[in-house]
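Duplicate of #3305? Posting structure anyway:
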């Protein structure tokens, strides 16, 4: 059987949170620690919304740091896993491409690992930022971490060449063959990933896409929605090489493959 999916429909990893955590382990809670460091450095209040919370491990880390956390995701499988394995936060189903979880209900919105880039169009980016503007109290923060669209400018070697990854999980060997292409007109990075496993199952093809968002474009969008950019840089961060650790200051460039932003709501809606 061959299936074609999007990030918000069936997806082998987001439908199988245990597999997701096995494939992308974060035992030291680097992403959660980085987010907490951003919140603390900029004096955020305690109420945090983790939008696109996935398995809940970052939300749970923020909870353990003393925050009152709501984790939101579109995937019921992720939410069920989070409620069972990463207790503490409240977990709710919400679509980041337009949500209403109450006005001024949070002191910060956190959006990690490119979840923001599921807003493929300008209208969806506007809907996300309008939702954040409503959700965040005056002077609250937006902390996000994602792929950097600018990284793909001129770097055609990253594209069109299949990359093979192999890993084992619960006695089954998985192999994924991943090809990235760029749709320049839509400003989308498209990924086709074919999964095979040695358990006799048929290959599964999955398609995902992320908005290629450029640093200056993000800066403009944030300003248009009432946010002042406090930091916008390509690292160090939780998914950079070398990775961030406590005490490292934010960088000054925005060229490498990850983009990190911290912005403050200075013009509430
Ligand atoms: C790459 S994972 C990131 C998970 C987590 N933030 C992390 O850093 O480990 C992306 C998450 O976004 C969720 N997601 C995808 N589209 C979404 C949408 N439109 N609204 C809310 N969550 C969405 C997926 O279900 C998945 O859990």
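Output from current build:
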């Amino acid at each position: 059987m061959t299936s074609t999916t999007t990030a918000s429909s069936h997806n082998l990893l987001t439908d199988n949170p245990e597999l997701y955590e096995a494939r992308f382990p974060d035992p030291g809670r680097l992403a959660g620690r980085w987010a907490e460091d951003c919140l603390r450095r900029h004096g955020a209040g305690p109420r945090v919304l983790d939008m696109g919370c996935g398995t809940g491990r970052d939300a749970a880390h923020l909870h353990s740091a003393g925050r009152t956390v709501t984790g939101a995701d579109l995937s019921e499988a992720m939410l069920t896993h989070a409620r069972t394995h990463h207790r503490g936060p409240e977990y709710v189903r919400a679509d980041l491409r337009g949500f209403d979880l109450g006005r001024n209900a949070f002191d910060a919105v956190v959006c990690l690992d490119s979840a923001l880039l599921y807003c493929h169009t300008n209208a969806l980016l506007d809907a996300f930022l309008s939702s954040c503007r409503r959700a965040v109290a005056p002077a609250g923060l937006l902390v996000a971490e994602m792929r950097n669209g600018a990284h793909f400018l001129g770097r055609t070697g990253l594209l069109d060449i299949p990359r093979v990854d192999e890993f084992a999980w619960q006695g089954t060997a998985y192999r994924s063959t991943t090809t990235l292409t760029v749709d320049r007109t839509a400003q989308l990075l498209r990924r086709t990933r074919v999964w095979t496993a040695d358990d006799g199952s048929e290959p599964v093809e999955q398609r995902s896409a992320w908005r290629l968002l450029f640093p200056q474009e993000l800066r403009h969008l944030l300003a248009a929605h009432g946010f002042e950019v406090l930091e916008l840089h390509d690292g160090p961060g939780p998914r950079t090489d070398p990775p961030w650790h406590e005490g490292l200051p934010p960088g000054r460039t925005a060229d490498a493959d990850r983009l990190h932003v911290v912005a403050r709501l200075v013009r509430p809606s």
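Confirmed duplicate; merging threads. Residues 7-8, 14, 31, 52-54, 58, 73-75, 78, 95-97, 112-115, 118 surround S-adenosylmethionine (CB under 6 Å). The domain at 5-20+152-210 is CATH 3.30.1300 (Pantoate--beta-alanine Ligase; Chain: A,domain 2).
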